[in-house]
Here is the input.
Amino acid sequence: MTRLLGYVDPSDPSFVAAVLTIIFNPLFWNVVARWEQRTRKLSQALGSSHLGCYALGGAILLLNALRSHCFTRAMLSQPRMDSLDNLLAYGAGLGLLGVGSVLVLSSFFALGFTGTFLGDYFGILKEARVTTFPFNILDNPMYWGSTANYLGWAVMHASPAGLLLTVVVALAYTVATLYEEPFTAEIYRQKASQSHKGS
Here is the structure.
């Protein structure tokens, strides 16, 4: 880690912007989703819970595009690491990007749009928690797939700044899961309990 820090200028505006977007994104979607779950204001303003979820999902996609842009700019504005600047490392980075993309896309297909973009906070629930691939091999596969994508992108660019930013991504997602997991578990526990009482 000390060696990595020798390559990174944390005061560089591009690096600061990347850190801020990485931290802001999960904070934003969790605050908005909890606010919606308590007040239903977004659903009421847009006329339905599905439209509210689509609006939040669209905002999250735009913010994620901004985060990826800032991440890439931060990498390109900082020095490359010679020991990573070779075909073997590039291939490993490409492999990580492939694995990450499979996890993200398969998660999206398993959950659907509303399942991916916090539909449960809008009262849009599946019959039960998804346990098919990739959820049967990994908890929160979309988050870890996204982290693998950033790690792969950083390795492909031989970027110490990118590696350090990937650590920030992993930490941000870890905090997000600590916040989200108990809520999701509880709403599906309540749903199962209600279904059992009704049968």
